[in-house]
Amino acid sequence: MPSVSANLRIKTKKPTRFDFNSLADTYDKWYETAEGAMYDRLEKNAISKYLLRNIRGRKLLEIGCGTGHWSQFFGEHDFEVMGVDVSKRMINKALETKLQNTSFYIADGHFLPFKDGAFDVTAAMVTLEFVRDAELVMQEMVRCTRKPGGQLLIGVLNALAQLNRKRKGNLGSPYVNARFFSPKQLEQLLEPYGQTHIAVAGFVPGQKWLLSLAPLTDLICRLLHRPSGVFIAAEVRL
Q1: Residues 7/53, Cβ–Cβ less than 8 Å
Q2: Would you call the peptide bond into 15 cis, given omega within 30 degrees of 0 as the criterion?
Q3: How many domains does the chain have?
């Protein structure tokens, strides 16, 4: 892995739209709820469809890794993971996980401290919504990914989803100032960089007693190409 400093100075005064340091201790509790666990399952299933099994090399850079939740997922799929986040407290929580084949460092996605083409895959899971300049972060992701043959993996919250619109109205939450993307907007952001594929997922019934049916409703809605699932999964082949 490329070497970086864990004490890397952040170059932007406010690189994110929300200070995630305040959520470091409670961030993962969402995944411990039945609803959170179901969304997590469906989102990871959507991203799994794009994971390349035969990609040359297995070095993956994750931008906005937070507490390492997605880093663990990528590590379980045999990637050697470098997770970076602008939040010191989030990185400290990630380091406590002691995941194998995974390193965590403080770094700003707008100014990544890596050489051109240093990684085979670069990922950003529910990150682009919260950075100050998604276009600049995308340019940095592309720069750090091997070409040709590298891959970008993107997961964002869908602007068309009713749940995400409700989240926007939750004052004090990280979602208030977030920049959610519609499928079309995400496609427009990604297409300049290479061959792009997008899938909408996260179709979970609003009634909790129907939660167990979510995998079925998600499958049906995806087959029907419904645009309003909570999560958008995407890949770009460089």
Answers
A1: no
A2: no
A3: 1
